[in-house]
Amino acid sequence: MTQTTPTCLWNDSASLEELTYSIDHGAVGATCNPVIAVTVIKTELDRWKPRIAQLMREMPTATEEQIGWRVIEEMSAGAANLLRPVFEAHKGRNGRLSIQTDPRFYRDPHAIVEQALHFSQLAPNMIVKIPVTKAGISAIEEATYRGVSINATVSFTLPQSIAVAEAVERGLRRREAEGKDISTMGPVCTIMVGRLDDWLKVAMEKGKLSTDPGYMEWAGVAVFKKTYAIFRERGYRLRLLSAAFRNHMHWSEFIGGDVVISPPCSWQKRYNASDIEVISRIDTPVDPKIVSDLLKRFPDFRRAYMEDGLAEDDFDLYPPTVRTLRQFIAACAELSGLVRDIMLPNPDLK
Fold first, then answer.
1. Active-site amino acid positions
2. pTM surpassing 0.90?
């Protein structure tokens, strides 16, 4: 795929071991989020536990939360360093490491922008994840205007993606009007295709609905393909990124597009070992019968698939948004707990 099509591979983790494998197999970028960061720290605790202890000494008044975020920053900067040669070769379009703003800021555009600016200074090739909430849209415009390459996340729908694209365009135009450089910026908009599928499966059970179970695997694919066609038609200056992998179609159906695909390393190994043919499928439409059935049965698919299906004021309470924010916020608490166990070991467990 990376050799024969314009489709780019980014690794969905900041783990140095996983990223090294991915780069060796054609990856030109990487993404991360609070859940992934916690997983990396737990998996590589032999490495991070001594560093946390050292940070405790270096930052004697820091809270467990502050130390936890410092670890995320160092993890991200280390992964970014691995990608620097790609970044320089691609002149900013690729070779970036995604670091996510604190999901607890999802209602506060000022806090999001300030953290985005800070994160963008950690390495020249950072790209900063901002959630596609109502506050996130204004933060995306402002961060773009201030020179930050953004990766819009917590995004599942066509309306969210259009709002992101328009916000990025406003930010870019503001920079251009002031003669500021945009040539090395590389914004992307994520669609978490698998998380949309996940929610519709929950909705099917809640509503006691019946449909062909295979149809449920196509919802995120259908939204992504429709969004990609609109992006090309309108000439938006950012790429789509496919995330939240649940089956091989979240990779194979997007091959051939000028898009980013960001599977976890485990999925990359599965793809590399498979006999799935690497051919362009991005312009192959999803069966209209499947789309029609999903539109008829699932109001939340209509909201995701139709351009006017979801207003900005409704972004925050769209069910996949709520579920994902809650998971990311819980991961922040888990990160603090990991640090707490090192700062204040539980005497009852000794």
1. 129
2. yes
